[in-house]
Design brief:
- This protein is an alpha+beta fold.
- Among the domains are: 1-49; 73-152, Immunoglobulin-like (Sandwich), CATH 2.60.40.
- Helix content is 31%, strand content 23%.
- The chain is built from four helices and eight strands; from the N terminus they run αααββββββββα.
- A four-stranded mixed beta sheet has the order 1-6-5-4, covered by helices on one side. Strands 2-3-8-7 form a four-stranded antiparallel beta sheet, with no helix packed on it.
- 11% of the residues are buried.
């Protein structure tokens, strides 16, 4: 595969697909694929002509600092606790610096990025929360062995889950559908053969 094709693949992954993805597993798969394509692109690119070492290293540092090329390791494992007003998420990660934490709090989502932690970038994202939060009040506190993310609930109460889950037992309010059809379908499935 040519370097141009790899660049196009990378652009499509970053611009088109990464913006659409919401589920943590899908985000993780996309991040892995982006890293894979970046590695292939680095191998496919012709090695630069011999130059002054200082100029080459400055270009590499500038490229590494560009946010478009940053890849993240997804942190899918964390613990959480709550009271009626807030939720605290505990991410166990050492070596994080407060000024290298990037946060994005929205009413129904949380995205936290930890930059340059022992040479890697990490990300903890909840694309769809169970209920709404107050983004302006939310905060991140970095401690030596963990990060405490405090989310303030928009309405008091206990959450059964941190992630939004579709209620499978909630009846459909489809006006077009016959209310007895569901029962009739069950009777057809459970009917014993004669």
């Amino acid at each position: 595969m040519s370097a141009d094709e790899l660049r196009l693949d990378l652009e499509e992954l970053r611009v088109d697909l990464e913006g659409l993805a919401e589920r943590p597993r899908v985000l993780s798969v996309l991040a892995n694929e982006i890293r894979s394509v970046e590695a292939k692109l680095a191998k496919a690119a012709a090695p630069p002509a011999p130059q002054d070492f200082a100029a080459t290293s400055a270009a590499v540092v500038a490229a590494a600092a560009a946010p478009a090329g940053v890849s993240y390791v997804t942190l899918g494992s964390f613990s959480w606790d709550q009271d009626t007003d807030k939720i605290e998420i505990y991410v166990f990660l050492e070596g994080v610096e407060q000024d290298k934490v990037e946060t994005s709090f929205k009413p129904m989502s949380v995205d936290i990025k930890f930059h340059d932690v022992k040479g890697k970038n990490y990300r903890c994202a909840i694309p769809k929360l169970n209920k709404e939060i107050v983004p302006e009040k939310c905060k991140v506190l970095v401690k030596p062995t963990k990060i405490v993310v405090t989310l303030y609930k928009a309405s008091k109460g206990n959450w059964m889950n941190l992630h939004f889950k579709e209620d499978k037992f909630k009846p459909s309010m489809d006006k077009e559908k016959d209310p007895m059809s569901g029962i009739m379908d069950l009777m057809k499935v459970n009917k014993c053969p004669s």
